[in-house]
Amino acid sequence: MSKQCFIDMGNSRIKWWLCENGHTVASHACWHQQNLAAFAAELPDVFHQPVDFVGVSSVLDNQSNQYLTWLCESWWHKKPLFAQTSSQHLGIQCAYHQPERLGIDRWLNILAVAPQQPVCVVSCGTALTLDIVFENKHLGGFILPNMNLQLSALIQGTQGVRPSVIEEPNLSLGKNTSEAVYHGILLACVGAIETAYNQQQQKMATPLKLVLTGGNAAKIGQHLHIAHDIIPELLLVGMQRYFGCHS
Question: Alpha carbon of 145 to those of 77, 98, 123, 181: distances in Å?
């Protein structure tokens, strides 16, 4: 039985998946304001068992990647393979003239949804990213600050705007500063997605599928007037496909 560990070292979180024959048997995630050593100490015991393969998606620095490599070699005697963006992979062409400048998280999401093309994939994580795949080509995309980054920028750039937290914002007009801020941030995200989607759909003769992923996907998705799917573990699908562990 083939056992693989897939690791996503993102901007905000580190997530580990333990898979057997393509099926997830365990997962663990943590915010990584703490260092990697402290995070590794929290990993459930199941992740210390032998594995046959380790695949990694990382947007962190070389020091973090080297430390992760040391951990994998110490635990499993396996050197991890790091996914990298290239001009073409699995028949999908990258839009960037310098493919290495496209974040590996975006590239893996693109590969994950490519079988559903034409498709628009939106990641609602630390940043809000949107990419289009059509006729086996990545056409390009957009990067915007997501909800928390917009809020931080607004607070840091103003003196009088100090909103109270609103857990369930909506698109109605705000009747106080807190509502105006949180509803406005949500409106910016929803409006950006719908504008970009409609802009691209007008250029295509076939329906453009919309796929959302990331921590704020459900919060944003419920306000979209476009049919869509939400796939929480889309990056894992992309890693499995990238490394040949997924159909």
Answer: 39, 23, 11, 15
Q: Are strands 229-230 and 127-134 parallel, antiparallel or unpaired?
A: unpaired
Residue among 17, 18, 32 nearest 64 (CA) = 32
Residue position matching structure tokens 């402290």: 38
> What one-letter code names the amino acid at 3?
K
Contact 38, 228 (CB under 8 A): no
Instruction: Assess contact for 90 and 114: CB atoms under 8 A.
Output: yes
- Regarding whether 221 and 184 lie in a shared domain, the answer is yes
Give tens-digit pLDDT for 60-115.
889 989 999 999 999 899 999 999 999 999 999 999 999 999 999 999 999 999 99
| pTM of the predicted model as reported, rounded to 2 decimal places | 0.92
Cα–Cα distance, 85 to 104 (Å, whole number)? 6
Residue 247 lies inside a defined structural domain of this protein: no
Annotated active-site positions, please? 105
Q: Count of domains in the chain?
A: 2
| In the predicted structure, residue 32 carries a pLDDT above the cut 70 | no
